[in-house]
Amino acid sequence: MRRLWTIGCFSRLIARHFSSVARRGERPGGEELSRLLLDDLAPAQRLERLFGLSPCLLALRAARRRVARLLLQAGKAGLQGERAELLRVAEARGIPVLRPRRQKLDALCGYQVHQGVCMEVSPLRPRPCDEAADTSSGDDPQQLWLVLEGLQDPRNLGAVMRSAHFLGVDRVITSRRNSCPLTPVVSKASAGAMEVMDVFATPDLPGFLQAKAQQGWLVVGTVGCPGPEISQSSKVPITSCLEFVWDRPTLLVLGSEGSGLSQEVFASCQLLLTILPRRHLPPGLESLNVSVATGILLHSICSQKKVFPVQERGQLLQDS
Question: Looking at the predicted structure, is the pLDDT value of residue 200 above 50?
Fold first, then answer.
């Protein structure tokens, strides 16, 4: 019944639109119809616009989203490379392809840097956190899950996910509360890594960390450059990321851009990692941007990976 009501409302909306156009002596359809916003659809049918070459191509390859249509900028002579692949995949799947002009595509993408590519797709949402355990890597002692509490800047989140994917993080866990959703801006900032990564969310981050600690995982929090007063008052040991030894499954926990880890999450940590500066720092510069810090911390940990397939390593060296 609700579905019929929704369809009826949308039909009446179109009818009123065409009637007003006809009264003005204009031809209905065409540009006028394209101005109907996606927000006029029912929430269950609402789409979002994914933009950028890598996010769109990786989203098509991963096939985790429903794709309504592909928009390729008109006027680009001879689609080649990844753009040609986008077109081939879309046509093979029966996805409608439109060729709007640059000005129209700019407006559709909110004047973001779209590289001449945009797709109207269903939203991508984190999976429930209990599914993360079902897809874990067994008894591997060097599992690394990245846990993010309250990251709110979409570009920070995207940059963090790009580094995590590049450096071999197994899972990304986010707090469901006060965290940035998986938006097209996040996907663009991640260079499309968001489209292929396993991202999970939990409504109870402290409870999740405590449960993993009981299973033998090491819960490692992060702090900015600690002064003497912090080092002496902290009940949780603090060590430089360069001195950390990765010999057991580990959860690396990073806090929000402004306040860092909450007290509840901080209390769940068994160890704190920090990045020591190479000079004396004035007040206000004791810490790094969260995405920069994440890259440094992950590299210092993941460089200790003991098992790396010889063939894959040789191929990487050959490609470089």
Answer: yes
pLDDT tier at 147, thresholds 50, 70, 90: very high
* Class of the CATH domain delimited by 127-302: alpha beta
- Asked whether 49 and 119 are in contact (CB, 8 A), the reply is yes
Q: Of 3.40.1160.10, 3.30.497.10, 3.30.1330.30, 1.10.150.120, which CATH number belongs to 46-123?
A: 3.30.1330.30
Among residues 116, 122, 121, 111, the alpha carbon closest in space to that of 52 is found at 116
Task: Please tell me the least confidently modeled range out of 8-12, 138-142, 247-251.
Answer: 8-12
53-62 vs 81-92: helix axis angle to the nearest 10? 40
Map out the domains of the chain as residue ranges.
Answer: 46-123, 127-302
Q: Are 219 and 213 in contact (CB under 8 A)?
A: yes
pTM for the full predicted model: 0.77
Q: What is the mean pLDDT of residues 117-133?
A: 90
Q: How far apart are CA 200 and CA 294, in angstroms?
A: 18
- Would you say 50 and 191 are in contact if contact means Cβ atoms under 8 Å apart? no
Do 178 and 212 form a contact (C-beta atoms < 8 A)?
A: no
Find the helix or strand (DSSP H, E) in which 199 lies: strand 199-202
User: Would you give the DSSP letter of residue 148?
Assistant: E
DSSP letter, residue 195: G
Question: What is the distance between the alpha carbons of residues 10 and 26, in angstroms, rounded to a whole number?
Answer: 21
| CB-based contact 159:188 (threshold 8 Å) | no
3-state secondary structure of 186: helix
Indicate the SS3 state at residue 107: helix
User: Alpha helix locations (H) across the chain?
Assistant: 2-23, 31-34, 53-62, 81-92, 102-108, 130-134, 154-167, 184-189, 205-214, 228-233, 263-268, 290-302, 310-319
Q: Residue 127: pLDDT above 70? A: yes
Confidence grade of residue 139 (pLDDT, cut at 50, 70, 90): low
Please tell me the predicted confidence (pLDDT) of residue 312: 54
